[in-house]
Design brief:
about 70% helix, two-stranded antiparallel sheet, single chain, mainly alpha, 2 domains
């Protein structure tokens, strides 16, 4: 457990450290926001590169608090829920680390047309797919709780319904994640990637929720 917490701290702080090192190499004025068409809509100060890393630290602290709370709900000697929350936090923060590096690259290169050189949206969605696969893989290990996992009034109705729901939900997340990765990495881009990804994730969630109802009534 200590190793997981250390890994979370490292992935949480690394973007801030890298941004601090890169700060001196960036121009005073950098692209600060891109529209859906991939074109710059606003320029800002290079100080804005620290906004993301500070938010990532806040997210990491939130996941640590969630893990601690999840651990308190478990029986003595059982740390499955706490471990799953920490792993989920690490996976998501790794995605944030890659996104931060890409943002620094576009700032350094003064990229005016995002899709022409570095499609951050496409990269983020593809990496998001990888994170869904990782989270889906650990979901079946969750014990019944009121904080994390595929929680509906049906999945919480009993231990067997919970176990089957987490297993099915994990499989759905894994399949969705694989599709998100390959479709965004090799086929689609731009606004279409966003729309497609939102639809796929929504369908996955709806199917999983319906399954919890079905398995509870079985």
């Amino acid at each position: 457990m200590k190793m997981l917490k250390r890994a979370l701290y490292v992935t949480m702080v690394t973007p801030l450290v890298i941004s601090a090192v890169a700060f001196g190499f960036l121009p005073e004025r950098i692209p600060a926001h891109y529209g859906f068409d991939g074109l710059v809509t606003r320029y800002g100060s290079r100080l804005e590169i620290f906004i993301g890393p500070l938010l990532y630290i806040a997210f990491g602290l939130f996941m640590l608090a969630m893990a601690r709370f999840a651990g308190k709900q478990e029986h003595a000697g059982n740390h499955n829920n706490e471990r799953v929350v920490l792993i989920a936090g690490i996976v998501i923060l790794i995605v944030f680390n890659v996104l931060n590096l890409s943002s620094l690259y576009t700032a350094y290169r003064q990229v005016d047309e995002l899709y022409a050189e570095s499609d951050l949206v496409r990269l983020m969605l593809a990496l998001g797919g990888v994170s869904l696969v990782a989270i889906g893989a650990v979901m079946p290990k969750l014990n019944r709780n009121s904080l994390v996992g595929l929680r509906t009034k049906w999945s919480l109705s009993g231990d067997e319904a919970w176990r089957k729901s987490q297993r099915f939900g994990g499989i759905c997340l894994g399949i969705t994640g694989i599709l998100l990765f390959f479709l965004n990495a090799f086929l689609f881009s731009g606004v279409f990637s966003i729309v497609l990804s939102v639809i796929m994730i929504t369908v996955s969630i709806l199917v999983s929720v319906i399954y919890t109802y079905w398995v509870a009534k079985d």
